[in-house]
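Repro case for the chain-ordering regression, as requested:
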Amino acid sequence: MSDTSVRRVLVADDDPDIVELLRLNLESNGYQVTSVENGEDARAVALAELPDLVVLDVMMPKLNGLEVLAALKAHDSTREIPIVMLTARASDNDVWEGWQAGADYYITKPFDLDELLRFIGYLQVNATL
Amino acid sequence: MGTVTRKVAALATAHLVVAMAVALGGRWTASEAGDLSTIAVLAGVFAIVGLFPMHLELSRHACTVTLTEAVLVVALFQVSPAGVVLAAAAGEAIACALQRQRPGKVAFNTAAVLGPVALAAQLFEWLGVRDAASPAAWATALAAAAVYAVVNHASTSAVISITARQHIGRIFLASVATAATATVVSASLGLCVLALAEVTPAAPLLVIPLILAVGLATRSLAVQRAEHLRFERLYEASSRTSGLQGFEDALATLAAEARSLVTGSAAICCAPDRSGVWRGVVIDDTGAVAADPAAVRAVRQLSGRAEVEFSEGAVPKVLRPHLPASRSVVVASTAPDSDAPAVLAVFREIDVAGPDTSRSDVLAAFAGHCALTVANARLYEEVEDSLRQQLDVNRQKDDFVAAVSHELKTPLTSMLGALSTLRRLTTRLTDEQRERLVEVAERQGQRLHRLIDDLLTVAAAEDEHVACNSESVRLLEFLGELADDLHAATEAVIAVHVEPDTLIVRTDALKLRQLVANLVENASKYAPGSEIDVLASAVSGGVAICVVDHGPGIPEPDRERVFERFVQLDQSSTRTKGGTGLGLYLCRQLARILGGGLTLEETTGGGCTFVLALPSGLGGVRPSSPIRVVATGGDEVHHEQQEDEAGLAASITGEDR
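-- result from build under test --
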C-alpha cells in the first residue's frame, strides 16, 4: 500500500500575508509547504513536484485558480491530487463553478484556519483507509 | 376619376340597351302607351315619391329606400309597359332635377330606372293578369316589383362598387335584406291603394295620412337608432382604449375606434409625444401606419377651422394631397391649450348629408376620451423608462456591492487569519513570527479602515446633489500651504509654481484641497524620491492644476484604467503601500463635482502628470449637479452673474469681511 498521507502542500496565492499565514499554520502541523504567487507557477510546480495537496486562490495573476484547477484535473499525474479553492468570491454562482470544475473543497474568505486544517485531517484519514 | 365615369356611363348604357331590347322584344308601340294624362299623373307621383327617400346607413354605405315600388305596382295596372317606363323615367328625371343634382347624375339616374322598370313591366305583361281585384294579379304585380327591386339594387350596388372600388357581391349582400323588406312593404302598399281604388276612386286618399305617419315614424326611429348605436359604440370604444399602451399603440387604437365609430374608411389620430413633437397614426383597410408630418399638419390645420364636417370639396386644395381620399371628413379635437391635445379625423365614403351633427358630436365626445388615453400612454412610457433606469441603477449597485465585498474581505482574511494563528499557535511561535503576525493584523486592519473611509467618500461623491461651496481661492497661497502640510506628512519634495501669481479660481476650497492632496500623496507613493511639481496656470475658460512626478510613470493602455474603481496596477506594491484602488476614482469624482475634469498624461522624460482642469467660476458652473451657491466672505467685492443651462441667472455678491 503506497503511503498517501498528506505531507507536502503547495500553496498558491498572490497575497503574501495569506501565504505566510498558511505556511505558519501548516508547518506547525508538520506539513511541508511550497508557495507560489501566480497561476502559471502553480501549475508548473504542481506538475513537477506532485504535492499531496494544493491550496489554490482563485484570483491570481497570469492564470487564475479555476484554470489551474482545470489543468491539473486534466493531467493524469495530477488528477488525484486533492485541491482546495480559496476565494473571496462567495456568490452561489462562483461556489457552484468551483465545485463543477472539480474542486475537492471550496473555502471562502475570510476563512477559518481550523476549517482548512480539519479538511486536511479528513483527507489524511481517508488516505490511510 | 376617368375610369369611374367611364364605368358608370357604361352601366347607364347597359340599362338603355336592356330597355331597348325589352321594348323590341315586347313589341311595344308608342300608340299603345296609354292615356297621356294618366302617364303624366303617374310621372308626377313617381317624382313625389322620388323626392322623399329614406337614407339608411348600413356600415359604410348609404342605402336609399323609396316607395317607387308602390307607384310601380299601381302603374302596371293603369298603362302599358311603354307607358310605365315613360312615367317612371319622367318622374325620376323630375325628382332629380328638383333636387338640383348635377346633369350627369340626373341623366344616369334616369337611365338607371329604364332597365329595371322595363323588365318589370314586360314581366307583368307576359304574365298577363290585369284584373286589379284578383289575388293572382297581385301576385304577378309583386313578382314584377321584385324583379324591379332586384335589378335596381344590383345596379345601385354596381355604382357603389365602382366608386368605392369594392367587390360588388359584398355591397349587394350588405343591404339586400333592407332593400327586400322595403320592396315588400312598398309593393304591398301599392296593392293596398289599388284594392281601395276598386272600392271607390277616392279611397286611396285615406292612405295618405297613414303613409305620412309611418314614414315619419320610421325616419325618426332610424335616426334614434343610429344615435343609440353611435353612443353604444362610443362607450365600447372608450372602454377598449382604456388599457395602458405605448404612445404609438394608443394612437393606432384610437384611430381604429374612431374609424368604426363614425363609419369611415380611414381615420387619423394625432397627438404630441413626450418631447412635444406631433405624431399621428393612419388606419385604413390595409392596417395602421405612422402618418407623415405633412398629413399631421394638414389634419391639425383642418381642426383649426370652424367646420367639423367637410365634404371633399370643402377641404382646402393644399391639404388634400396629404389626406386619404374620401368624400367627406369629420374632424374633432380637444382644446388646443389643454394639457393633452389630440386631433381626430375620420374620412368617409359617404357625402355630408345636411346639417346632421350627430357624427361630429360623437367624435367630439370621443376626442375628449382620446386626449386622456394619449396622456395615459405618455405616462406609461415615462414609467417604463424610469423603471428601466432604476433596474439599471440597481444592477450597477449590485455589481458595486459585489466588488466592494470582495475588496473588504481580502484584508479581513489576512487580519483574522493572523489573529487566529496567534491564538492557535501561541506557544509554538518564535518571537519574530509573533511580531510579524501582529504587524500583519495591524496593517491589514488599517488598510480596511482606509478602504471603508474611501468607500464612504465614494458613495457620497456618487450622490448627484452634492453641496458645493463657492469661494475665491488664491492659488499661490492655497497650494503653497498645501505643499508645506504634505511635505511634513510624506517627506516628499514639492515645488509649487503658479502662473500668473495672482491666479484665482472660484471653487469649493475643501474639495479642491482633498483632490490635490490625493494626487500629491499618490505621486509620493508611486514615485518615491522623485520631486513633485504642482503647477497652476490659466487656460481658456478656466484654470489648470498639474501634479507632475518623475517616477516610473504609467503605460499608455492603463492610463484610463487607473481611474476605475479598485484598479491597482501593481498588486504587490499596493499591499505594502496600503492602496485601496479608489484614490484616482475619487479624484475624478471630485473633479466632476467641481465642474471640471481630471486626466493623465506622460511627463516628458518619464513620470505621470495629472491635469486637473477647472472652470474659473466666473462663467457657467456645470449645471448637472444643482449647486447650492453660498456666498462666503471674500476679500474683494464681486458682483457676478452665473447662468446655468436653463438660462436662470443667479447673482452672487461677495462682501468685504
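Ordering looks correct now. DSSP finds 16 helices and 17 strands in chain B.
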